[in-house]
Amino acid sequence: MKVRKWAGLAVLALPTLLVSLDMFVTLLALPSIARALHADGVEQLWIIDVYGFMVAGFMITMGGLGDRIGRRRLLLAAAAVFGAGSLAAAWSTGPGMLIAARAVLGVAGAALAPSTLGLITHMFRDPRERAAAIGVWAGCFTVGAVIGPVAGGLLLARFWWGAVFLIGVPAMVLLLALGPWLLPEYRDQAAGRLDFPSVGLSLAGVLPAVQAIKALARDGWALPPLLLLAAGLGCGWLFLRRQRRLAEPLVDPALFADRTFAATLGGLLLYALLSGGTMVQMAQHLQVADGLSPLRAGLALAPGMLASVLGFQVAPRLARRVRPGPLIAGGVLLSAAGLLLIAGDRLVLGFVVSCLGTGPLVTLGTGLVVGSAPPERAGAAAGLNQTSSDLGYALGVALLGSLAAVTGLHTVAAVGAALLTGLAVLLAIVLRRLPRLGKGTEHDPVRDPALHAGPGGPG
């Protein structure tokens, strides 16, 4: 039984890796795509952006849908759609067809991430094993970013541009073949129907906000994207207001009254904003200020990406001996120290140190966010977890990009270090009562209700 669930984790790792890899190989292939399909500038932007838009926009919906119809069922359906969309993208005959295929891939990708994380939470009941499994899951996103440019470059050197979209097809076939055997099904037997007005409001909140953030990052501060951002925030407020009135909400507002959930989710968003935005600015600095080629700049960032993978694997082991609060706060402080090194012009070393500190917050924090929710709501919590990271990254690119344009990378890193230090203090205080990860299902700190009360509760 134990071998079977770890084999199941290996199967779940495949779609997780591909969601990340798909974005990077498309960026690399874009010049070839533009020449072959005669795509103009606007069409090229949509070829790149529509995937991320759909992933961000549908993540919350897909998390709730998996809780209702079954996470394995949704995962396998998404795998089939992702495979079909990959084939359509590879043999697209024009920009419009490729944009449509990429949109389909984005919707399928939005279902893959929360379904895999929700299943991991269900499969690994022992808190130590769950933390290790989440470390593997989180590491796959980084591995996709590391191998994406390499795999894409090799394929483009030997085949036509469409080959980059075929990477995911064998993995999806394998998932469809082994998933029904290795993966358990789980769904909320008492869940009601999906509330479609909530789906519409969630999309109307997330999609304009993401588009506005991208426009602000690309073109600077302007009235149209600010109005679009305001519209997205307004729809988000209406979405939350509707959830409070529903008996079966798409997202349970009571989750945000849980101090562990709210603080950790907010911490993940802020961390994604600061670390992701700094990484983008560093990549640009290496090329523009230091004159490195894209390949050499990528190689300079690779040690940091590998350090983050190492951190994802080490953090669950440390959590057996150190409480989550100090461990997560210590990791965030280590990342802050890395940003200070970047501010002092020790770019590569600082990036490695910063990425090494990522492990505790991402692995243990993800476990806290998903584990704070009732088992029947784990998919929805997983969707929120991923949406916060995606929005944080987009905000980081926009806000830190604007700051870098005025003051440069070193100031951006210094500001990020100060904010991460404040975040470390906050998380240390909020999570201070969480015990070390215990062995066995009877001692799971995530499930202790006394540790998750709101401001008026215990603690």
Produce the secondary structure layout.
Elements: H1 2-37, H2 41-69, H3 71-90, H4 95-123, H5 127-158, H6 168-182, H7 196-219, H8 223-245, H9 259-288, H10 294-318, H11 324-343, H12 347-356, H13 358-372, H14 378-407, H15 409-430
Helix pairs in contact: 1-2, 1-4, 1-5, 1-6, 2-3, 2-4, 2-7, 2-14, 3-4, 3-6, 4-5, 4-14, 5-10, 5-13, 7-8, 7-14, 9-10, 9-13, 9-14, 9-15, 10-12, 10-13, 11-12, 11-13, 11-15, 13-14, 14-15
CATH evolutionary superfamily of the largest domain: MFS general substrate transporter like domains
What is the CATH class designation of the largest domain? Mainly Alpha
Strand content: under 5%
Helix fraction bin? over 70%
Q: Helix count, per DSSP?
A: 15
CA distance, first residue to last residue: 39 Å
pLDDT averaged residue by residue:
80
Main sheet properties:
none
Low-pLDDT runs of 5+ residues are 440-459
